[in-house]
Batch of 2 targets.
Target 1
Amino acid sequence: MSNIKGRYAIMGRGESDVGKRPEMTSIGLHLEAAVRAIQDAGINKNEIDGLIARSTRSAPQMNYSAVLAARLGL
């Protein structure tokens, strides 16, 4: 594996609201947190080069990162 030190950075963080939220799906919670992370970073979503995410155990989905990226409009 090549050295990635200094080549990648996490620039923002976000969380979804917590508590009982029966109206939200697991991907909805991830989208809420991702949008907040983008806002926290102070960047435009078009500046994002990549996304890595893992689906939940309760709602497993193949290619979850690609699904989340598409839903974010990346």
Target 2
Amino acid sequence: MKLSVFCGVSVDGFLARPDDSLDFLHTGEQEPHGFKEFLSSVDVVVIGRRTFEVVLKLGHMGLYGKKPVVVLSSRTIDFSPVKGGTVEQMSGKPSEIVRELKARDFKHVYVDGGITIQRFLAARCIDRLVITRVPVLIGAGIALFGPVPRDIQLRHVETRSYAGGLVQSEYEVNTEHLHNGERQASA
């Protein structure tokens, strides 16, 4: 099973403004940058509760189509506003979530939401990062990256630039794990 992040950030590294607004991600010329193709390659979406609430408020749940959406939260969530989608709640450590999804035979997981991405990266559960930088500085907001317990080595795969100013970089994460949070034994 592969776990991927595909996100847009300001050049100064923010996923959203402090009030969760995403308006800066849609400034300037919008051009195809692979998100639709990426989304068609995944079979389940894992997001945090806060991201779920933002996506729901913006009316973007339809973006995921019929893909199952797993919302991570230890508090009960009201899913009644969700129409026409499969949404469920899970809680636990990233390694536990990964084990559960793998047991359900999912092959490609889209991980989204600032804290969720940070937790899964720290637990060495992310395989791929695709980060699209939007040409704007917003100064404050919800950061894509936060403190990590150790260095996380990345292997640059490709960087693409677009006429409207978007710059997208793709990295493979050196996970050194078995997708259960345990390090592989060194040879």
